[in-house]
Amino acid sequence: xxxxxxxxxxxxxxxxxxxxxxxxxxxxxxxxxxxxxxxxxxxxxxxxxxxxxxxxxxxxxxxxxxxxxxxxxxxxxxxxxxxxxxxxxxxxxx
Length: 94
What we know:
Blueprint: H1 12-27, H2 31-45, H3 50-59, H4 64-74
Helix pairs in contact: 3-4
């Protein structure tokens, strides 16, 4: 089973179909529950501020001066998460 976020649209038309599916699924929820879900999704998808990016990089062990350089380079990008690799994780997509 593929998830909404794990399977990117193959075409713009498919993207619209996915949004219609999301709307349909939300309309099936009680209004209060749908509101809480949308608030949670909004929080998860909000881009990080430059200060939040710097803090996340520092938490990963990067030096302050390097964090400043990286945060400056990332300005203009909508970064929503920085997750350090931990034991057992890999950045290899295969």
